[in-house]
Fold this protein.
Amino acid sequence: MTGRAIFAAWLILASVTAVAHHSPANFNLGVTDFAVTGTIGSVSFRNPHSVIELNVAAPDGAVTQWYIEFSSVNLLLRRGWDLDRIAVGDTVTCIGNPSHNGAPEMYMWTIALDDGTEFGR
């Protein structure tokens, strides 16, 4: 493979990675203590961001599905998260940055499990 071909392949890989990883600009970074409590509908530990779909019930019984984005698997493990402790059906409280536009979305920094265990930064 020539130097140009290697460079072209590198550019393609870099652009795919850049598209996959996005900015947290759609979250209100000035609010860091926003919390929602609900039941985990799905959880996906992945790169570049892990995701929880959290079913949050209102006092009137209406349920809203929240999209909770958080760190990559590698960062979570380095921070001491026990990924086996977070599962579908668990009731958790997610704390972090809410969406700027009021959508049911947040970037999570800390998760509190029902038994009081917390995993965070």
Observations:
- The chain is about 20% helix and 40% strand.
